[in-house]
């Protein structure tokens, strides 16, 4: 909403219209009433927001073992209904498409396409974009796979394990990457050498813009990182005691994140 209003004011744009859709999807939301911050109004049917565990992505169920629909103020997973009235193809990869289709969602024998997009429901059926769930975030117009970046970081000689996640920056659209890593104690970690490594193996938009050295990383399963607390703490130097670094795009290397830099980031 803030970016919308600032952008409209700065460039003297008379009208701004917004919409939400997916290439592989078959439903869309539209905001033609120019309500700031809203991607559309869910008054046409076919799209539902279901409540999920923000860490695992598991759907909350009611006593009948069906998913729970969001109420105004809730953030939930966007699901697109598949029925005889809709023309749905999905991905070119049939197996991948089938993995995204869920059955018996709100009633027996219904089915929906799981978009993996987290949307927020507002009063009067208005909807805003909240986040991309779990293993993907969007930065600089590109979708970044946290699993791919983690795999690359884990290949660095001095890193034992990493967790990559998206964090927000004030007055900036999307989320940028942040990495929390556990160092291999038998190998000396050198930040300059690591900086050269990420330049060689990652495109610019995938390089984590913030970097955190942790003694331990909590898991919720084999090799799956628990990231909800890491996301909440982000790069808040006021509460994090671990060493923190930020990516200096001009110097092309990680620099220590001190209070003066942190305050500049907070101010946008």
Automatic annotation (TrEMBL):
GO CC terms: endoplasmic reticulum membrane; plasma membrane
SUPFAM superfamilies tied to this protein: Acetyl-CoA synthetase-like
Swiss-Prot/TrEMBL GO biological process terms: long-chain fatty acid import into cell
An example Gene Ontology molecular-function term: long-chain fatty acid-CoA ligase activity
Gene3D superfamilies referenced in this protein's UniProt entry, alphabetically: 3.30.300.30, N-terminal domain of ligase-like
Keywords on record: Ligase
Record bears the keyword Ligase: yes
UniProt similarity note: Belongs to the ATP-dependent AMP-binding enzyme family.
Protein name: Uncharacterized protein
Lineage of producing organism: unclassified sequences, metagenomes, ecological metagenomes
């Amino acid at each position: 909403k803030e970016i919308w209003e600032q952008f409209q004011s700065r460039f003297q744009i008379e009208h701004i219209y917004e919409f939400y859709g997916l290439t592989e999807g078959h439903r869309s939301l539209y905001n033609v009433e120019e309500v700031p911050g809203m991607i559309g109004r869910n008054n046409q049917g076919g799209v539902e927001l279901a409540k999920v565990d923000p860490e695992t992505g598991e759907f909350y169920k009611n006593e009948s073992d069906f998913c729970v629909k969001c109420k105004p103020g809730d953030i939930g997973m966007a699901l697109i209904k598949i029925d005889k009235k809709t023309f749905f193809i999905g991905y070119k990869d049939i197996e991948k498409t089938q993995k995204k289709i869920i059955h018996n969602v709100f009633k027996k024998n219904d089915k929906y396409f799981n978009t993996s997009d987290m949307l927020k429901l507002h009063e009067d059926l208005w909807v805003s974009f909240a986040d991309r769930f779990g293993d993907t975030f969007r930065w600089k117009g590109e979708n970044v796979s946290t699993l791919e970046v983690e795999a690359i970081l884990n290949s660095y000689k001095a890193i034992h394990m990493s967790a990559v996640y998206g964090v927000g920056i004030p007055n900036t659209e999307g989320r940028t990457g942040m990495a929390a890593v556990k160092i291999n104690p038998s190998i000396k970690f050198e930040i300059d050498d690591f900086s050269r490594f990420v330049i060689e193996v990652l495109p610019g938009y995938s390089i984590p813009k913030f970097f955190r050295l942790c003694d331990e990383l909590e898991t919720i399963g084999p090799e799956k990182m628990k990231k909800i607390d890491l996301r909440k703490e982000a790069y808040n130097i006021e509460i994090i005691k671990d060493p923190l670094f930020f990516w200096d795009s001009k110097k092309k290397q990680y620099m220590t994140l001190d209070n003066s830099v942190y305050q500049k980031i907070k101010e946008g």
